């Protein structure tokens, strides 16, 4: 049996809703097209992996898909990251993956992932190929200075993708100016629909510089302050009511992110046989995209995930439940606000 080559790993980071999963899907598609075996490790904030369902539906040919939820890959779930990577490294050449994409939660400081190569179980078996940071040009440009975590995610990058440049070219120009001033040494690419232009730098050939002396995890409180709520839907939901709920300012707290999978009342299944749709709320925009059936012909479960600070979980779950439009004769579950 030929010796196992070192496993290349690419870390993809960036704020909530920046477009990381879209970028990851593009990366995975390119790896599969090139004939390489690639796996993905997805870390999501909360108890349910929506991004994992999106990747699994889009890329059923992957060498592996693992989801880490209810914690941060950089700290509380680090042992799980190491265990998963070790298991993939233990697989024989040609069976296990050649490359791994690790997508962090948007609330994570990736500093503590840059030394994965030094883990005793991974020494000589893992190569950190790069750190791709995805930033959305639809976010206020002053976030580079007012959001310390975003600034650190950018500062650690070997390559920055400025996403959604097609949606607001003028905002993309403003972000490019700020980023090139702050990080002259980091390559910067404006992407459209998650895709970089031909001839762009290869994320897998990243120039990772040593951390500055004294650099340590930020201790940012974003992760501790945020809360995630999810609700499993049993029936199709009203599309107009979903849009109204998610785009209206919450009565209390701040809505950081919302995403999920649903069927829409009154919408017939598409030609591919699926009636599932993925929805994503980020930067004040609600995006809806078709979600195909899994490779085995089954449909992903319908679920909504809401992430924010200071939100009333009971109120949100009740509001999400009220979006359902049960077929005639069916009953909707009653969502009780916790005492």
Task: Supply the key terms.
about 350 residues; alpha/beta; Rossmann fold; Hypothetical Protein Yjia, Chain: A,domain 2; five-stranded antiparallel sheet; 9 helices; 12 strands; about 25% helix; about 25% strand
Helix/strand layout:
Elements: E1 7-13, H1 20-33, E2 38-44, H2 50-58, E3 64-69, H3 78-90, E4 99-103, E5 126-136, H4 143-146, H5 148-155, E6 159-163, H6 169-182, E7 188-190, H7 222-225, E8 227-232, H8 239-247, E9 254-262, E10 276-282, E11 285-291, E12 303-309, H9 313-321
Parallel strand pairs: 1-4, 1-5, 2-3, 2-4, 5-6, 6-7
Antiparallel strand pairs: 8-12, 9-10, 9-12, 10-11
Summarize this, please?
This protein is α/β, with parallel strands linked by helices and 339 residues long.
What report would you give on this structure?
The protein folds into 2 domains: 7-205, P-loop containing nucleotide triphosphate hydrolases (Rossmann fold, 3-Layer(aba) Sandwich); 226-321, CobW-like, C-terminal domain (Hypothetical Protein Yjia, Chain: A,domain 2). It has 9 helices and 12 strands. It has helices spanning 20-33, 50-58, 78-90, 143-146, 148-155, 169-182, 222-225, 239-247, 313-321; strands at 7-13, 38-44, 64-69, 99-103, 126-136, 159-163, 188-190, 227-232, 254-262, 276-282, 285-291, 303-309. Strands 3-2-4-1-5-6-7 form a 7-stranded parallel beta sheet, sandwiched between helices. A 5-stranded antiparallel beta sheet has the order 8-12-9-10-11, sandwiched between helices. It is globular and about 60 Å long. The termini are far apart. 41% of the residues are buried.
């Amino acid at each position: 049996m030929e010796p196992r080559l070192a496993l290349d790993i690419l870390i993809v980071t960036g704020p909530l809703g920046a477009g990381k999963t879209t970028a990851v899907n593009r990366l995975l598609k390119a790896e599969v097209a090139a004939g390489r075996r690639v796996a993905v490790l997805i870390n999501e904030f909360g108890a349910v992996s929506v991004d994992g369902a999106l990747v699994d539906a889009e890329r059923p040919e992957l060498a592996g898909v693992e989801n880490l939820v209810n914690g941060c890959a950089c700290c509380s779930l680090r042992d799980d990251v190491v265990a998963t990577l070790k298991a993939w490294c233990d697989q024989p050449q040609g069976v296990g993956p050649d490359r791994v994409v690790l997508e962090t939660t948007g609330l994570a400081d990736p500093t503590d992932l840059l030394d994965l190569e030094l883990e005793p179980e991974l020494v000589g078996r893992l190569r950190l190929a790069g750190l791709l940071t995805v930033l959305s040009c639809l976010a206020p440009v002053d976030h580079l200075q007012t959001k310390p975590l975003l600034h650190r995610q950018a500062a650690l990058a070997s390559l920055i993708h400025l996403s959604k440049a097609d949606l607001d070219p003028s905002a993309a120009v403003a972000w490019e100016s700020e980023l090139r001033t702050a990080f002259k040494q980091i390559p910067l690419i404006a992407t459209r629909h998650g895709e970089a232009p031909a001839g762009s730098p290869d994320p897998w050939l990243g120039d990772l510089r040593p951390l500055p002396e004294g650099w340590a995890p930020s201790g940012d409180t974003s992760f501790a302050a945020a809360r995630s709520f999810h609700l499993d839907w049993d029936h199709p939901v009203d599309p107009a009511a979903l849009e109204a709920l998610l785009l209206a300012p919450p009565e209390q707290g701040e809505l950081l992110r919302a995403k999920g999978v649903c069927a829409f009342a009154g919408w017939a299944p598409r030609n591919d046989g699926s009636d599932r749709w993925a929805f994503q709320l980020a930067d004040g925009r609600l995006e809806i995209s078709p979600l195909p059936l899994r490779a085995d012909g089954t449909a992903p479960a319908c679920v909504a995930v809401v992430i924010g600070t200071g939100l009333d979980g009971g109120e949100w779950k009740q509001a999400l439940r009220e979006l359902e439009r049960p077929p005639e004769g069916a009953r909707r579950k009653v969502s009780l606000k916790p005492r």
